[in-house]
Amino acid sequence: MAVSNSQNFNRILHVDGDSFFASCEIALNPKLQGRAVWVGGGRRGDGIVIAANRAAKKFGVTTGMACFEAARLCPRGVLCPPHYHEYRELSDRMFRVLEQYSPTLVPTSIDEGFLDFTTMDRNVWRHTTAANYVKEICERIWREVKIPVSAGLANSSRLAKLATDAAKPGFLEISPGAEKEFLKDRSVRELSGLGKNRQRSLAALGAVTFGHVARLPSILLKQKFGIWGQQLWLFANGRWSEPLLLQVKDRTTISSNTTLPYDEPDYPAALTFTLSEATRLTGQLRREQLQLRELALAVRFNDFSEVSGGHRFAHPQFQNSIVNGVLENLFHEIMGAQARPVRQIRIAFWNLTRLDTQPTLWGRTNAERWGALDEATHHLNEQWGKPTVMTGAQLSLQHLDGIHKNPKAKCPFVPQREMVKKLWGTNADPLAHKGDSEKRLAKVSKQIQFNH
Ligand SMILES: [Mg+2]
């Protein structure tokens, strides 16, 4: 395996917010400090626990548990409804602190990311230690954003993530040379992305921990699992190291799932809401320069029964008017024979492809004009902090009795593409600022990354 020596000097920091949503609720309402807190869905506290803080976990409250069950286990705990918009803001503030500590920051979710610390020991850390430096970062995030974070430092992002998990709450550094020892008794299950099948095949070879893997002949792992097996063997032996790469994955689907604030008996109102949500989704897609080929609509009633339908376009679509036209027909089709009040509406777009916004010989393309329009609308709305420019569907939604107004984004995550744009101000090649040799190195290591 051609892993050059220089790569063994990679130092990657993984940072992860502790029980992020629950911590956000405490940051938003300091009175909750010191109490058992969990965030739960549902309209009347009848949903499931989305996140629970450490104090609540002590009582046995876990993510995915029914909220009433959590209340039974911990009667003095506090159930908070989710505030995704505020979580996003706190996440932004956390990443804004983090980006000041490394030129390369790769956010992977709303509360997690990696920082490249590879050359820190040669300059920044001459008068301090990694532990002190990271402690300072964590303390600053706590001071300024009021979110507790944990961190792990190691020679690859995978190992750094394992270090964070082991450190929670706190910080753990796996110093160069100590990797194998750290991994020895840990289950291979801890490796993110390890599927059940591979887990079973490894167990059949007697490999349950990384220590077991390290003792197997590397050739056996190579025969059994190909390049992945070889990489796993290097990892278990503490010899896997990789530079931090900014990989922007394309979105494969976009969807929205909204439980209405009350059971809606008025179908035209439900349709208006559907079209407004679809408008938001197509706008988001265009900002990410994508278009859709297929869509689905599902409507759930107050008795939890459901009707659904889908449509496949002959060509990829990006225009709101076309998508909404199809959705409207679909809505009438599936709702025609129904009479029960609507509880929940789900819209999904998938089979996404790149939206070509190259200027044509005869002027700008339609796609580009729509994109520019979206961009301008988005900016105006952000600038004013409320929908200032609206489509017909959104406008008629405003005229409804106000309760469906301004539906907030359901997905709390900042898509990576958006995050990249925010941090670097561009979608461009994240390696563009690096030298040719670094680019080549990055390319090589991309080829030898774990594939699963
Ligand atoms: Mg977290």
Note down, in words, how this protein is organized.
The chain is α+β, with helices and mostly antiparallel strands and 452 residues long. It has two domains: 11-175, Alpha-Beta Plaits, CATH 3.30.70; 253-414, DNA polymerase, Y-family, little finger domain (Dna Ligase, domain 1), CATH 3.30.1490.100. The chain contains 17 helices and 13 strands. The protein has helices at residues 20-28, 54-57, 67-73, 84-98, 130-145, 157-167, 179-183, 196-204, 210-215, 218-225, 227-236, 267-287, 320-335, 366-384, 392-399, 416-424, 436-447, and strands at residues 12-17, 37-40, 49-52, 78-80, 105-109, 112-116, 149-154, 171-173, 253-264, 290-301, 306-317, 342-350, 353-354. Strands 5-6-1-7-8 form a five-stranded mixed sheet. Helix 12 packs antiparallel against helix 13 (320-335) and helix 12 crosses helix 15. The longest helix has 21 residues, at 267-287. The radius of gyration is 25 Å and the shape is globular. The model is unreliable at 1-8, 406-415 and 426-452 (pLDDT under 50). It binds magnesium ion. Magnesium ion binds next to strand 1.
